[in-house]
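Annotated sample (chain length 258).
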Amino acid sequence: MGILNVTPDSFSDGALRMEPGQAVSHALSMVEAGADIIDLGGESTRPGSVGVSEDEELRRVMPVVERLMPLLNIPLSLDTTKSGVAARALAAGVEIINDISGLVFDGEMAGVVSDFNAGLVLMHTRGRPATMQHDTFYGALVTEVCSGLASSLKQALRAGITAEQIVLDPGIGFGKERAGNLELLRRLHELLGLGRPLLIGSSRKGLTATAAGRTVGSRLFTTAATIALAVANGARVLRVHDVAAMRDVADMAWEIAG
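Output written by the structure step:
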């Protein structure tokens, strides 16, 4: 899953592709590099970020959706927590909604996804991006993440979304400290009991800085380590910035893991 941000403030590539033509060009380059899905986002969810209005998010993403859809031969996913944004994008051809709140922020989201028979990524987080890193203590991290994802999954199923439409994401970097993120990667296989494919979004995040304090732009190899180990521990969807390199890493890891 190739990351396509059209935001001025994303932690890794903010402001790089605000113009729709630049965004479309980058998306097509990721397809060429081996992406199976493009994940478009119009609102930064980095720690400490403040949300934008529905109108502003639509202003950012819809020109890209409209230009990109006729050119894509793979699914387009939209990273949003707003049901109004999701509805507009799905009507224009988007096939997957990636909801970082796990259906918590907008009570209408499950109904919209169900109405369009779309794919759905349910992520675990605790709190909104502006405040989620204020409380990162868990008594039993993996158990609590599993419980949160199970609750989101039940909500989706009650809305008429089938299990086969759903992928689960433990939320690396969302309301967790670095040690917690590493624990989730180490124990990822324990979430397989939820019965759905797992998505990991570790690309260039703080846990990949390592003790050497690598900057965002120099985390290719540390990200690769997280991708390989995530695959070995059961991940089946990898949300990444560096598609060509991580495609090779994932393919090799899948071959080894069998």
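Annotation: The chain has one domain: 2-257.
Annotation: The CA atoms of residues 17 and 23 lie 5 Å apart.
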